[in-house]
Amino acid sequence: MKKLRVLLIGAAFSADLHSDAYARIRDKVEIVGICDKKLDQVEALANRYGFTGYTAYDNYDDAIAQCDCDLVDICMPNFLHHDVAIKALNAGKNIISEKPLATTVEDAQDIVDTADRLGKHVYYAEDWLFAPAFRKALAIVESGQLGRPLYVRARECHCGSHSPFAQSIKFCGGGCMVHLGVHPVCFMLSRKNNQWTELTAMTSGGGENNMVHQKMEGEDWAGAFIRFADGTYATLEANYVTTGGMEDILDIYCEKGCVHVDLSFSGPVKTYSIDGLDYTVEKAEITTGWSTPAVDEKYNLGYCGEINHFVECAMADKDADVGLRGVDGLETLKVINLIYKSAKEGIHIKNPALEG
Ligand SMILES: NC(=O)c1ccc[n+]([C@@H]2O[C@H](COP(=O)([O-])OP(=O)(O)OC[C@H]3O[C@@H](n4cnc5c(N)ncnc54)[C@H](O)[C@@H]3O)[C@@H](O)[C@H]2O)c1
C-alpha cells in the first residue's frame, strides 16, 4: 500500500498530539516534512516519535513549495492558519487545519471557497468527535434507549492557554470561547447538522473586565445558550478560570435518562503523592496529593481517531464526516462570532439562515 505523505507545519503542542497519532499508523503514513521556525523543536518532535527520513524546514513557504507531500497538517498559531491553508491548497495539497479554522469568518470562508474551487479537501481537526467516551455517550443516546434528547450541557475549561498567541485577539480570534468553546460548539452543531435557531450569550469581556487574565485581550469566561431546530437546548461554556486541570465535560439529558461524561478525571487510576508526579492530566498546576493520572490521554481525548479518519479520507480522496469538514469549521466560527456579538451588544440572536 502506498503511504500517505504528510507535511507537518508547526512542531509544538498540537503537532505533538497529531504526531502521537501518526506514529500509531506508520503502515499508512509517512512524515516527509516538518516545519517550524524553531528547528530545535522540529528535531525534538521527530526524535520523540521516531520520525526519520523527513526534511526539516524553518519557513512554511519553502516547505509547501518544496516538499513532495499529499497532505499538509497545519499546527500553527491561529492567525497563520489562513495563509498556510491558502498556500497549501494552491500548491495542490489537501489540508488538515487545527481549530479554529481561521481568526475571522472571512478568512475561514476563503479557505472553504478556495478548496471547493480547486477540488481539494479541508479536514477540520475537531478531536471531541473522536473521544471514545463521547462517542459511547452519543451511541447510547442515538440508540433511543434514553428517549428524546432534551438538553445538553458541554464545556471545555482550564487555567489558561500556554501559547503566547492566545493573549491577543488579532492572533487568536477571541478569548476562551474561540480557543476552547470551539470544541463544544462544533460538537453540538455537528450533532444537529448546524440547525441552530437562536442563541444568547455572556462573556467576561476581555482585558481588565476579565476575572483572572486581565492582560489577555479576549475574554476568560464565556457561556452561551443555544436552541436547535429540533427543540433541543444547549448550554455551552468555556473558561480560563478553572484550576486543577483541563475539564472536558458533557451532560446529555433525555426524556428517560441522562448521560454524563468527564473526559479528564474519570480514569481508573488514582494516586496519592507527597512529592508530586511528573505529570497527571493536561493543565494540572500541581500533582501532589490525590490525582487521577490520565490513561493514554491523547487517545482518549480523540486525537488518534481524528488523525486516522483524516488519513483514510485523504487516501480515498473524500471529505471527512460531518463536523470535521472545512465547512464545519466555518459554521463553528460563525456561531462563535454571533456568541461574541450577543454578549457584547446584550442581544438575543436568531439564525438568519433559518429565518422567514
Ligand atoms: N485540538 C486541540 O485540542 C488543540 C490543542 C492545542 C492547540 N491547538 C491548536 O493548534 C494550533 C497550534 O497551537 P500550539 O499550542 O501547538 O502552538 P503555538 O500556537 O504556540 O505555536 C505553534 C508553533 O508554530 C511555530 N511558528 C509560529 N510562527 C511561525 C512561522 N511564521 N513559521 C514557522 N513556524 C512558526 C512556533 O515556533 C510554534 O512551535 C493552534 O491553532 C491551537 O488552537 C489545538
| Amount of beta strand | 15-25%
What structural category arises from helix and sheet content? Answer: alpha/beta
- How far is it from the N-terminal to the C-terminal residue, by CA? 52 Å
CATH architecture of the largest domain: 2-Layer Sandwich
Bound molecules: nicotinamide-adenine-dinucleotide
Q: What gyration radius follows from the Cα positions, in whole Å?
A: 20 Å
Given the structure, what is the number of helices? 11
Question: What is the string of SSEs from the N terminus onward?
Answer: EHEHEHEHEHEHEHHEEEEEEEHHHE
Helical fraction equals 25-40%
Average pLDDT number: 96
**Overall CATH class of the largest domain:** Alpha Beta
What is the fold named in CATH at topology level of the largest domain? Dihydrodipicolinate Reductase, domain 2
Low confidence ranges: none
Shape by Cα distribution: globular
Q: How does the major sheet shape up? A: 7 strands, mixed
In total, the number of domains comes to 2
Strand order in space, largest sheet:
12-11-7-10-9-8-15
What name goes with the CATH superfamily of the largest domain? Dihydrodipicolinate Reductase, domain 2
